[in-house]
């Protein structure tokens, strides 16, 4: 599998998680500097904040697929204890699909996209908004 494509896929999910909000519940009383969080309190975790924490991650707000070259997440990146059962299948299929597309055509980002070359990347992104033009390669 092409590590560049696999790393690009993982990096896009780091920047714009497909599950941006995680719902959890505290299991025990937790003392914070600002007060006590009681057990059984619902918690909303905004995943993009942790993946794009510019106070902790020097690569927080840039597309950095090279971070994934060895196949593992960057040392300062936490994926948590649970993983998607179809993770490797999704990575294989997306890499194979993009590889096939790029061997037959070129993609061009269309104007009006929320992704803009040489501009800061958006903190969140609707996976349905970017638009691309597909042009067959001349053979």
The helix-strand sequence is HEEEEHHEE
Percentage of residues in DSSP E strands: 15-25%
End-to-end CA span: 25 Å
Number of strands: 6
Rounded mean pLDDT score: 85
Helix-strand category? alpha+beta
Can you count the helices?
Answer: 3
Return the domain count: 1
Helix percent band: 25-40%
Uncertain runs with pLDDT below 50, 5 residues or more? none
Strand order of the largest sheet: 1-4
Please tell me what the overall shape is. elongated
- Biggest beta-sheet profile: 2 strands, antiparallel
What would you report as the Rg, rounded to the nearest angstrom?
18 Å
Characterise the protein shown here.
- The protein has 139 residues and is an alpha+beta fold.
- The chain has one domain (3-18, 42-136).
- The protein is 26% helix and 19% strand.
- It has helices spanning 3-15, 47-51, 87-104; strands at residues 21-25, 30-32, 35-37, 42-46, 105-109, 132-136.
- The strands form three sheets. Strands 1-4 form a two-stranded antiparallel ribbon.
- A hairpin with a 2-residue loop joins strand 2 (30-32) and strand 3 (35-37).
- Helix 1 crosses helix 3.
- The two termini are 25 Å apart.
- The model has no long low-confidence stretch (mean pLDDT 85).
Question: Descriptors for this entry?
Answer:
139 residues; alpha+beta; two-stranded antiparallel sheet; 3 helices; elongated
């Amino acid at each position: 599998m092409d590590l560049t494509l696999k790393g690009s896929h993982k990096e896009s999910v780091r920047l714009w998680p497909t599950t941006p909000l995680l719902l959890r519940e505290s299991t025990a009383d937790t003392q914070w500097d600002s007060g006590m969080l009681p057990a059984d309190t619902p918690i909303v975790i905004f995943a993009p904040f942790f993946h794009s924490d510019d106070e902790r991650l020097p690569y927080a707000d840039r597309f950095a697929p090279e971070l994934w070259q060895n196949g593992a997440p960057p040392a300062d990146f936490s994926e948590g204890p649970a993983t998607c059962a179809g993770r490797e299948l999704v990575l294989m299929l997306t890499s194979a699909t993009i590889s096939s597309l790029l061997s037959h055509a070129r993609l061009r980002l269309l104007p009006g996209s929320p992704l803009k070359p040489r501009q800061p990347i958006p903190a969140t992104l609707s996976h349905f908004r970017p638009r691309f033009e597909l042009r067959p390669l001349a053979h």
